[in-house]
Amino acid sequence: MPLSRFPAIEECIEAFRRLPGVGPKSAQRIVFHLLTKDPEAARRIASACASLHERVRLCPTCAMLVEGEAGGADCRVCGDRDPSLLCVVEEPADVFAVERAGGFRGRFHVLMGVISPLEGVEAEDLTIRQLAERVKAEGVKEVILALNPNMAGEGTSLYLARILKPMGVRVTQLAHGLPMGSHLEYADEMTLARSLEGRREI
Amino acid sequence: MHISHLHVFPQIHSPYYFYYSLILKIQTQETRKNPPVRLVRLALRHFRNYPALSLEPAPGFNYLFGPNGAGKTNLLEAIHFLTRLRSFRRASRRGMIEEGQLGMYLRGEFRREEGAAAGVTLEAAVQDHERKYRVNGKEEGDLLSYLDQVHTAVFFPESLQIVKEGPALRRAFFDRALAAENPAHLAAAREYNRLLAERNRLLKGGANSDILAVWDRRFLKSAARIVARRQRYLGSLRGHLALLECSLASALGRRIEVEYTAEGTGLSGETWEHLAGGEEDPEAAAEAVLAQSAARAAAEERRRGVTQWGPHLDDFRIRLGTRRARDAASQGEQRLLTLALVMAAAGSFRAARGEEPIILLDDLSSELDERCRGDVLGHLAATGAQVFITSTEAPGSRAGGAGAGRFHIEKGILSAR
Fold this sequence. Notes:
heterodimer, B: alpha/beta, globular
């Protein structure tokens, strides 16, 4: 019996299939699980998803996620932190990653993507204008570029450095190098080359 | 040992030059120790005209002979596919599967030292759209790592298009040979192609000048890296061509020259090489030269919205004596010239990686007279490589030395003679 005879099920599978990391088989498994094993979960997921966008917004200043009434300079991450240090990341999830590492006491700015000409993403599609305004207004002394170490991230970093440096701030980039606990022998040549370039005296 | 990957780095001024020179020493020591890689057993299922086949080649020369259409070249193709994961003919994976079958399976046992266990078994299975490649029985997801196990060099009738046809085939030949020596070249080429596509998109879309300036710079650096690599590779290749000229001198009579010409630089090959070769850091030198062509092309590029220069347009100009091989050499000369290039690339590979690739020669006898053939085979015998040669005629009784393999093939049936 073809699945097309069950449009409700099919629609639901299709909806899950569009999520990152979910293939057609997983989507089908999830839907049948919700259908037969855990009907309560379906309602919970539905209501949590439905209110997600009402309860969570983007901070108009730093583009980080905000919950509740807070906003602007009061967004949770930037609250009362050192305004002279500004860490630029691609996605809100990256803020949590840097926070988990601890040790960073400055503020964040989320770009909401990277420049990628082939995908039609240009500077205007990101929060670069807001970033420039913040650098001027908040007394930023150093901008730390913490974009992903790939071609798109590299290009975006170079572009940001080009427009931010003339504004008189120091622009730095996270070090590229070997992951902790790894083996030199297994490092790929690109990483190793970068590590040699970025070596420092101890 | 993965050390050979570090080939990316050999710049004299660079901080890791010291490590590089160390590695170079290790490599040259290994060069002397390492005997060539050898195929000791080949098994095919449903490959072209072979429902099932098992072959145990000799360590040196192997003659595959039989009438036209018997399936001699198919065997070379099988060895090539097993090691390079593509046909040297213009054939799709599906096209190599025996007619009426759904899939094919190839297996090769390769040995590096006689009698010792140091070797590798490669398996390639293709069925419908599924492909499975195994190294020593374990599935290898990383194609680059599979491709780096065993190398082959091939010469077949259409090879001479390298000399005869347009620059695209030459770029493909030299880039492939370069990537075999130095797999990092593939990553660099991929990066370059992406930057080229991005830059063209930006030029077309009239992007803001800051973005374009950043991408111009990245493109220039990436282009310089490719050009410098190619130049350095040509340097090594020239040395091996010179060595070959000694053994092929009787047949060729004139020097083989290969020079790199960069599109849009407005420089002749020699001036270009003089400029690029004079500096200690080839990448920086290439960047300086290319920056000029970039500046010259800028206005035109803004107008036409397409990149007008770069290694994707460059050429490797091949000359025999003073004349361009493409226009002036005879068919036979072009053939010999191509063969010389293939063998020089194999020699360069050996010097860099300490291992002779397996040599596949398809239909060597046509268009090469006996003296040339003798020169070529003499050279190959001296390298100690494992060689597979197809021909319609049975080889002479003493051809290839005492241990040579002789396999007669007729209608897909193989018999050792």
